[in-house]
Amino acid sequence: MRRIAFLWVGLAAACIALGAAAAFETRASRLQAIKTVGIVSAIGEEMSLTRAGLTGLGNAAQSASISAWGLDELIVQQATKLLGGRFRVQPVSYRRAAFAAIRDSAVAPVNLLRSDPFKELVRSDVTPQGLDAYIVITRARSKLGNGRNVEGVGLAEYRTLLADYGLIHALYEVRVVDGKSFDVIEKRAAAPLDNTGTVRIAGPSGPVDEPFERSASSERLRAAIADLIIRSLPLTLGDMHLIEGQ
């Protein structure tokens, strides 16, 4: 009986491996067929201000407008430059607020069985239609330490008994949406650039000493957030095999 059980386990593992290989081959072939793409960026025009840790859990989250920063325009510009070596990138129009309003990340494990919320939005809200694919870049979410959820662009203070830590983050995820079926061919959340800090977060982030009061008006803070995006975007697109040579 033990031998039969081992055989069943081995057969199941082989089937899983074959299924994964077939899925990768299908995904790779679908990516290979893409010639024209449009880029949608909607990480939002607000920055979250979050306090967390031993003394901050009772504080309500705040937000500040950063529409003047032009982060979505920066992302489209950088993505166009990176993807232009492989695809023909065409400008598209879309309601940025509609994409930014979707708060639930379909990349999270709990949502893997749900229909991706951006599928219908690409079909109904992006023009022109008919491109081979649409690259959709939106907010992602992560835990700050063992406390609050944080998402998108933000500034956080994490307090312990011994010290306070300031952290900026630019959390986003990238989807490749088929321009004909509107199925999501590939999706990935941007990974951390450096995960060696005292307070870690699952996405591009870095230490900062900027106080909350001057956050949205700080050119230094805007430049630091832009740097996180500029440095992480080629790594994320490369991990998704969207950049030539990757």
Topology diagram in text:
Elements: H1 2-32, E1 36-42, E2 46-53, E3 62-65, H2 71-83, E4 88-89, H3 96-100, H4 118-125, E5 133-139, E6 141-143, E7 149-151, E8 153-159, E9 164-170, E10 172-178, E11 184-189, E12 205-207, H5 219-239
Parallel strand pairs: 1-4, 1-5, 2-8
Antiparallel strand pairs: 2-3, 5-10, 6-7, 8-9, 9-12, 10-11
Helix pairs in contact: 2-5
Signal peptide: 1-22
Keywords: Signal
Number of strands: 12
Give Rg in angstroms: 20 Å
| Gap from first CA to last CA | 47 Å
Helix- and strand-based class? alpha/beta
Provide the domain count. Answer: 2
% residues in beta strands:
25-35%
Within the CATH hierarchy, at the fold level, what is the topology of the largest domain? Rossmann fold
CATH top level of the largest domain? Alpha Beta
Helix tally equals 5
Which whole number gives the mean pLDDT? 81
Low-confidence stretches: 11-24, 109-113
- Oligomeric form of this entry? single chain
Strand numbers in spatial order across the main sheet: 4-1-5-10-11
